[in-house]
Amino acid sequence: MRGVMAIGTMCLAVLLAWAVVPLAYGFTVDEVFDNGTPNDPSDDLLQVARWSHVPQSLVGDRVRGLGGGLEYAATPDYCARILPRFIDTPAPTCDRLQEAIQRAFSRWSASHPVLRFPDVSGRIAPTLPPAGHPRPWEGFGAEIDLFALREDEFARVRGFAAYTGFWYVFAQPRGTNGRLLPGGTLTSADIVFNTTAPTCYHLDPTLAGRGCNHFESLLLHEIGHALVLDHPNEFPHRNFDSDNDPTNVIPIDCQDPARGLRPSSNLDARAVMNSSRGRPEPVHAGLTNDDLGGRNFLYPICPGAHRPEPRKTGAAADAPLTAWLIFVGAGLPWVRGKRPHRSSGRKPPPVWHGGGKPHSPVHGPW
């Protein structure tokens, strides 16, 4: 079984007030799953990676997947590092920041019988794969780790407000429909927020328009990347819907999630997973039907579906042995004017590939 690394989608939110208003087209999965068949993008849906619906949990059994929920952890210094970059007056407290983090995760799990996101901070230490590690796809830290780092500490966040990555393995995941599905199995995701000036955030929705990213909405977007959703408006040829109406519910077949889906380029400007196209991340009232269609394609809601009951196995050998990594960023630097190249310019080792693109650019308050 081979492991693969890929750097995934990032959203742009720049300093420039005249930037294009974002548009959306159904939902799309991360471009790393592009099979290179532009005349038939539908086969990309068969290659996508998912979190596997296994009964064990990471904190209890050292097994990665939906059992026990997708466990997330923030570094102990996350709050102290990022709060100085908020423009709210008075400054938010760590408790308010944690409430915003949990709300963002809870929006993705709302009305879903399987998805949930328990906070395991303090029980699992967030960890980035060590540089040069021979098997980074095996998973480090929690299933979703939250970091607040300077650009000199994490180079990939340079010029962006946030950057998200994930690893997946070449092993079929068990879907929420109980069946083995085609594609890969996710093993870990990392969401890194930039703490280098002039990057800035706000919690108060009324501060929108001041040139800073709405923190909760930005995290909401990045969680979508950790589930392998991409920017609909950036890849209109790879967006999917069941019809030409971008505002109605996308019905997903429980047993065959790709059934009835077809390419669609009609627009929904409210979608959370849009690239912000050079503007600060706006305030999102909630997930749209297009966002939920992508979630439900990846994790179908089936009659009688329930969260898997954890069971002790006594071993972690059931965990996948290889995985993909995807990094997604928010906060594009207005000083750069272009996104990172998909390739690093070096030929990668045969077990993985690399690539990347920006989300929301770095900017300061207006």
- How many domains? 1
Q: What is the number of helices?
A: 5
For this structure, the CATH topology is Collagenase (Catalytic Domain)
Global Rg = 19 Å
Give the termini distance in whole angstroms: 50 Å
Q: Could you tell me the number of beta strands?
A: 11
Largest sheet features: 7 strands, mixed
The computed structural class is alpha/beta
Tell me the helix content: 10-25%
CATH architecture: 3-Layer(aba) Sandwich
CATH top level is Alpha Beta
Order of helices and strands: EEHEHHEEEEEHEEHE
Overall form: globular
CATH-wise, what's the superfamily?
Collagenase (Catalytic Domain)
Mean pLDDT: 77
Q: Which percent range describes the beta-strand content?
A: 5-15%
Which ranges are low-confidence, i.e. pLDDT below 50, for 5 or more consecutive residues? 1-25, 310-358
SSE layout:
Blueprint: E1 3-4, E2 49-50, H1 58-61, E3 72-74, H2 78-82, H3 94-109, E4 144-149, E5 162-169, E6 184-194, E7 201-202, E8 213-214, H4 215-226, E9 240-241, E10 262-263, H5 289-298, E11 327-330
Parallel strand pairs: 2-6, 3-4, 4-6, 7-8
Antiparallel strand pairs: 1-5, 5-6, 5-11, 9-10
Helix pairs in contact: 3-4
